[in-house]
Amino acid sequence: MLKRAAVESTAEAYLELLAARGVEYLFANAGTDFAPLIEAYAKRGAQGQASPRPITVPHEVPAVAMAHGYAMVTGRPQVVMVHVIVGAGNAVGGIINAARSNVPILFSAGRNPITEAGHAGSRDRPIHWAQESFDQAAMVREFVKWDYELRSVSDLETVVDRALTLAQAEPQGPVYLTLPREVLGARQEAIEYADPARVAKPGPLVPSPESIDEAARILAAARNPLIIVKAAGRDPGAVASLVALAEMLGAPVFDQFHTYVNFPQDHPLHGGFDAAPHLDAADAILVVESDVPWFPAFTRPRAEARIIHVGVDPLFSRYPLRGFPTDLALAGTPRLALQALADAVARSADAAAVAVRRKRWEGQHAGQREAAAARARAVQSDTPIDMAWLSRCVGDVVDDQTIVVNEYDLDATQACFTEPGTYFAAPPSGGLGWGLGAALGAKLAAPDKTLICCVGDGAYIFGAPTAAHFVSRAYNLPVLFVVFNNRTWNAVKRAVQTFAKDGWAVKTDSMPLTALEPAPDYEMVCRASGGHGERVEDPALLPDAHEYHLKRFLHEFFPRGVEFPAHPAVAVPEDLPLGSVVTASGRVSAAVEFDVAEPSTLPFSAVQLTRLDEALTLVSRHTELRFSVYLGDLGEDSHAGAQRLHGQLGAAAADSVLVAVDPQRRNVDIVTGPEARLRLADRGCKLAVMSMVASFKEGDLVGGLLSGLRMLSDQAGVPHHSH
Q: Looking at residue 463, which CATH number applies to its domain?
């Protein structure tokens, strides 16, 4: 039916139409070209009219990655808008990622004002001359399916519908729309459009019955068939179809450079993550949604092996050079093609041969899983922390309600993903910086899921972490970011080692341009936006650290109001003695004059002492435990010294928590009474000590104490009173 809506500008008509087409979010890094759009948002917000929710992202890299992450979880394209050519330039890497990952995005940018005067939106800033280009879309044209510049409101419905439809048509990918400021700012009275839209993307496709039958004959007749898959899990429905086919064949499935959960990794026919050692024995290979099933320079199937490719574009027609052998190419929707293959194989497979193959591969699967676990155990005490052990600790906390976004460094052999849509890896194009924004977009799409983002230190830097943590805080999108800090560009080092394994760089252990030293304090970047950042250097603390941070992430990740269940007496300022005040926490602070021989030796300034005093009061009220801090000599046996001090608290010791710090010996001890111990486990105390020590090493004594008190308060929580 035809719908008519009153609007004041083309920009408002654009928002009206996007909302009507189901676009939920507009991820934006705004510039002067956004003025008409911002005015339209303000007007519609004041009048309660629907618009895509605007998300301010202070850098283009996470902005595009957020749209990518949202679409990869939901399958629904969202809108990204950046500032003319300069913003588009920053965003190009993300658009390449989306293109090579077949992720639908409506990518848009303002168009520099095209007139010098005479129109609403004509040039009125110095940048409006330098920011004009002859062909703004040229920089992204190779990596988008379609590009266009909006020229008139009369074409708005056609342009928006075409953009969204083409983005979602297989093979999916980004499209690009430029929006001149004069066009957006043009005055309008109304817009008429079809609701629902009168355009539709093509439906799912199935390869011809003849092609299916031929492929089934090849696979069923093979003695050693195997399956290589990379991105079939982009459609979660394809996973069950792939399982059915593998079981009908008794064939292993290898997640080669996988970017999705393609096959349950606990399934006995999951062959692992490297098919290369098995290529020479295979006489039939099914390649499913895989652009690079092996490296021809190193290994390849034997010449007589029959090779079948399945995918929405099995030839990867947008790749300039790709020469993998193909005896049969099945173009179509993978879940339908794979299910049709499974049904066809079932009619002709030799059940006895299938059973023998399956038993062999089941044994290999079990051996691989045990070998991976043994490898993690062997390095669990190594320092610096080994990536296999760190990956195992991440894998151990993952469940079916967890989504992991991995930009390179999580070792897939140390985790086990079984549910479609729970694991997403870096795009095949390798544009760094994708992980942080993708994880935030995924969290926005799945707010009830736990989000863990694993990134290398280099990928973390590329991801514009200040902008990413800003978005996390501003839009209440908690993500546990795990930075694998190896202080180097590992991919670059490995490339050198492969290219010249006996060369000068390897022999002299000299790799210019690869080191990321001195390493920044990455945890401080997160803290700057109100998150909790922690540096873990002791491998023994990793399991508890992950469990603690996930609990904090789920329930208490962001700054929160503190409830005070206790009700202290109220101090009246007029009744207090001279030198006393009521602090913000409600506690009375009294100043007493005394002489100090060497004021420069005091550990805290007056301001720092006040902060610490406030913190002790707040955590004590929040938890209803008695917190205290001791700073001084604890003796040779610091733990015994701390226990003696705690014992001096007398009757109050039972529900008391003492944080004792010996600066000279660099020892920190936390002693809890029997009542307090019921609320504070030893591992929680260890994590608090770890946090404090990290800050002490940086010379931040009071900051470390405040961080430790906050962590202990989080661990203890609010007491539950019976009524």
A: 3.40.50.970
Q: DSSP code of 111?
A: E
In eight-state DSSP terms, residue 600 is G
Residue 657: both structure tokens together = 């928590």
Tell me the two tokens of residue 176: 């690009």
CATH number for the domain harbouring residue 270? 3.40.50.1220
Amino acid in position 216: A
The token pair that represents 642 in the structure block: 């701390």
C-alpha–C-alpha distance, residues 551 and 540, integer Å: 19
The pLDDT tens digits of the residues spanning 131-156 come to: 888 999 999 999 999 999 999 999 99
User: Which among 402, 477, 399 is positioned nearest to 441, based on CA atoms?
Assistant: 477
Asked if 66 and 435 touch (Cβ cutoff 8 Å), the reply is no
DSSP output for 469-510: HHHHHHTT---EEEEE--SB-HHHHHHHHHHTTTSHHHHTT-
How many CA atoms are closer than 13 Å to the CA of 645, on its beta-carbon side? 24
Task: Kindly state whether residue 507 falls inside one of the protein's structural domains.
Answer: no
Domain assignment of residue 509, yes or no = no
φ/ψ of 31, rounded to 5, equals -145, -170
What's the structural domain count of the chain?
4
Q: Residue 40's pLDDT band (boundaries 50, 70, 90)?
A: very high
Enclosing H/E stretch for 69: helix 60-74
- Angle in degrees, 0-180, between the axes of helices 351-378 and 237-249, rounded to the nearest 10: 120
| 462 within some domain | yes
Predicted local confidence at residue 701, as pLDDT: 82
* Best CA proximity match to 634, nearest among 675, 670, 601: 670
Domain that holds residue 545: 381-486+520-555
Residues facing 652 on adjacent strands = none
In a domain, 201, yes or no: no
**Domain identity same for 102 and 23:** yes
Tens digits of per-residue pLDDT, 578-631? 544 444 334 444 444 434 334 445 566 666 777 788 788 878 888 889 999 998
Same domain, 234 and 288: yes
For residues 73-95, average pLDDT: 96
DSSP code of residue 571: P
Q: Which DSSP string corresponds to 142-198?
A: GGSS-EEE---GGGHHHHHHHHHHHHHSSSP-EEEEEEEHHHHH-B-SEEEEESS-S
Contact present, 655 and 719 (Cβ < 8 Å)? no
Q: What's the N-to-C CA distance of the chain in angstroms?
A: 59
Residue ranges with strand state E in 240-336? 253-255, 270-272, 284-288, 306-311, 328-331
Tokens representing 432 are 């760094």
538, 687: one domain: no
CA distance 564 to 640: 33
Cα separation, 128 vs 130, whole angstroms? 6
Q: Could you tell me if 392 and 369 lie in one domain?
A: no
Residue 496 CA, distance from chain mean position: 29
Residue 371's Cβ-count burial label (10 Å; 0-12, 13-18, 19+) is exposed
Q: Omega of the bond prior to 577 within 30 degrees of 0, cis?
A: no
